[in-house]
Amino acid sequence: MNERISVKRAVYEENDRRAAVLHQGFAAKDVFVVNILGGPGAGKTSSLKQIIARLKGRPVSVIEGDIASDIDTQALRALGIDAYQIETGGDCHLNAPMMEAIVARMDIKPGSWLFIENIGNLVCPAEFVIGEDIKLLVSSTAEGADKPYKYPAAFQRAAAVILTKKDIAPYVHFDEAYFRAGVRALNPSAPVFLVDALSGDGFDEVASWLSGLRT
Ligand SMILES: Nc1nc2c(ncn2[C@@H]2O[C@H](COP(=O)(O)OP(=O)(O)O)[C@@H](O)[C@H]2O)c(=O)[nH]1
Ligand SMILES: [Mg+2]
Could you tell me the distance, in angstroms and rounded to a whole number, from the CA of residue 164 to the centre of ligand 1? Predict the structure, then answer.
């Protein structure tokens, strides 16, 4: 048991060390890095499209993490977005070594935004830093209002929560007050943005909050 714990700690420490080096490299180029977490189908890619459409003036690149396929990367490229794929082949989260490998192949512009869509999963991605400035958590009304209570680490570490599928909230009996109370208890400072990632409703606020982090 003790041995298992110490191996796990060594994995985290090595990852943290390499992620810190990545972060220094990004900061030296004034690249702001957003690590997007959320369950499968929460609306991470849809939200990313809405956010990027509203961030004017700075170059943007995207790293898409998936266990298999490059569907999201192709969808973003079709919109003219500079997107790159990490296919983990089964791993449930991105880590610093994966980031080192992909960043070496990218031409990340000074002063740009780098968005990373992590693997759809509310557990493992919360445990591994990958050089980001902030974590952005995407949760949807359809997943249920109890998610902050069941997956506290992801909600605790998020700088903000994007709550998607506002349009269908009444049909899935979403209890918004219960959800917000759960987030508040874990993370008093994180704003919660209730949005519709298909129509774009609510994303002007998300984009101006993000932009405000850099000025
Ligand atoms: N009704 C509704 N559907 C949404 C919304 N956001 C995403 N979706 C749909 O949910 C599904 C998953 O969205 P996607 O962005 O691919 O989620 P991801 O797996 O987290 O990247 C797709 O069918 C989207 O069209 C939303 O705000 N409202
Ligand atoms: Mg996606």
Answer: 8
